[in-house]
Amino acid sequence: MTPSGNRVFKDPVVRLSAGLDAVLPVAVLTALPQVARLTPAERRRLAKECADTVTAHGDDLLYGGPHCTTTFAALARGLAAGALQPGGVTVAGHHFCASPHEDCPTPGAAALHARLNS
């Protein structure tokens, strides 16, 4: 639990603090252009490295600690890599995708896709 006790319950398994829940979409969108320039092999390698970082230091991200900043950046970059895959990625109630796909749960995603792909 965070010191403020604020939680956002969008997913029965993954729960984020209210602050993390608010800034994560912005961080993923900010990381997308840089990650999009990578080759598919580089994105896979990046996703693995990011997953390793989040696995090793996720507690710092949730509760504060020496690896909080680097873990947050890894989470955002890893989700950006997932957003570039067909169908995107969904975590903690947030869906990230960079191209149109059937049954996209993100309201207004068509405008975002058009902007990302222009």
Structural account:
The chain has helices at 18-36, 40-63, 68-83, 109-116, and strands spanning 89-91, 94-96. The chain is 57% helix and 5% strand. The model is unreliable at 1-13 (pLDDT under 50). It is built from four helices and two strands. It has 118 residues and is mostly helical. A hairpin with a 2-residue loop joins strand 1 and strand 2. The radius of gyration is 14 Å and the shape is globular. A two-stranded antiparallel sheet has the order 1-2. Helix 1 crosses helix 3 and helix 2 packs antiparallel against helix 3 (68-83). The chain has one domain (18-116).
Layout of helices and strands:
Blueprint: H1 18-36, H2 40-63, H3 68-83, E1 89-91, E2 94-96, H4 109-116
Antiparallel strand pairs: 1-2
What is the rounded distance between the termini? 41 Å
Strand order of the largest sheet: 1-2
The radius of gyration is 14 Å
Structure class: mainly alpha
Taking pLDDT < 50 over at least 5 consecutive residues as the criterion, the unreliable ranges are: 1-13
What share of residues are in beta strands?
A: 5-15%
Mean pLDDT: 81
SSE topology string: HHHEEH
Count of DSSP strands: 2
Number of helices: 4
The domain count comes to 1
* Main pleated sheet: 2 strands, antiparallel
Q: Helicity level, as a percent range?
A: 55-70%
Shape descriptor: globular
